[in-house]
Structures are given as C-alpha cells and as structure tokens.
Amino acid sequence: MSCADSGSDDAEAQAALAELCKIYWRPVFAFICRQGHSVPDAQDLTQDFFARVIKGRLLQSANQNRGRFRSLLLKALQRFLQDEADKRSSRKRGGDLHFVSWDDWMAEAPSRLSIPTKDSESWSPERIFDVRWAATVVERALRQLGDECEKRGRRRVFDVLSVCLTGEREDISYAKFSKTLGLSEMALKSLAHRLRARYRALLREEVARTVEKPSEIEEELRYLCSALTAAT
Length: 232
Prior knowledge:
Order of helices and strands: HHHHHHHHHHH
Largest sheet: none
Structural class: mainly alpha
Number of helices: 11
Helix content: 55-70%
Low-confidence stretches: none
Number of strands: 0
Distance between the termini: 33 Å
C-alpha cells in the first residue's frame, strides 16, 4: 500500500510485485482455481491481480476490514474477479509490468504443510484462501527460524526438531530424537523449548506485518491457528 500511495516508479513497483507474488501467491492462486478457472488462466489472473494491486487500483478501493491485510487482499481479489472487464484480454494484463516467472514463485516457497485433497474438495474458496494464507505465514516463520539455526551451525537440530515446534505433541519421541542428534533427552527438551519460543516470536512478527494495530495480533494468530487445525 505504501508503494501504491507514494506513486512509486516502475523499478519500485516491480520489486513490490515480486515480493507480493512470492509471499502470497498460494492463497490467491488457490482461491482463483476454486472459482473454476483452469490452471493457466488462474496463473494469468494471479499475476494480473498482483499487478493491479501494485498500481493501487484495488487495495485503495477495498474495504479495510479491521486493518487485516488478509481480509483486505481477499476483498480486493473478489472484486477483481467480479470485474469482467479486467479479463477481456490476457495481452493487457499487468500493463507495462514484467511478471515474475511462475517457476520462480514455485521455487521460492515450497510448501511444507499439505492440505488433504479429498477433504478440501468441499471447502469454499474463502476457506481455501484462509488455510493457504495461514500456511504461508507459518512457513515463513519456520523458514526464518531454519535460516537462523543454519547460521549458528544448528541446521540439523532444526530439521529434526521442526516437527515439535507448532505445538505440544504427546506423540513426540524425545528418546528417538536424542539418539539421532547424539544429545541427552534433557538437553534436547531444552533446545526444543527454546526453538519453540523463538518460532512463536517469529510467527507473531510475521502476523504483525499483516495487521494494522498490535492489539489485533493475538486475534489474528488464533484465527490462523484455528484455520490450520481444522485443515488437518
């Protein structure tokens, strides 16, 4: 929105488009597909949508629902898809912006969290969007934590303990993990506790980027966690 409001030049708009696409393409693309569009058409529409977002044509007119970027983007997307004039010619999509390679989007954010295909077939486009959004937020926090661990020479620890980070799980075998990592169970539990705390802090930071007020962070966190819980 800052980019759109400031009348940014083409280079800034292109950088912003690339960043938005890489972060949020999954929920947008999933929503468009669930609306009945083919994969190629959904790819075109996803890129066109982000291009129009950058130019300020959608976010500025969308209803800012309690300051949440998730709700704002969904409303803008629904408005975009309802506008038949925006879909008349694929040649005109995006104006003079050069799109990010679709393959680059796919490589940038491989999904660690799978959604059951059979169950999700009955979900509404809005539910698909929210679940994919929640997964995106979680994956970005996990990716950042993994990068931090790698810088400290603890990438192996993160890879092994990452399954313990998203909540307290009774089926976690610390005895098995301790053998894998060559650490005592006590040391392993201490590491898991610190990693979990850091993960939750990163998750809060990620959510904070998508809400207007700090007071909205907790509610948005609860909503996204409930969306993921219902999807598993």
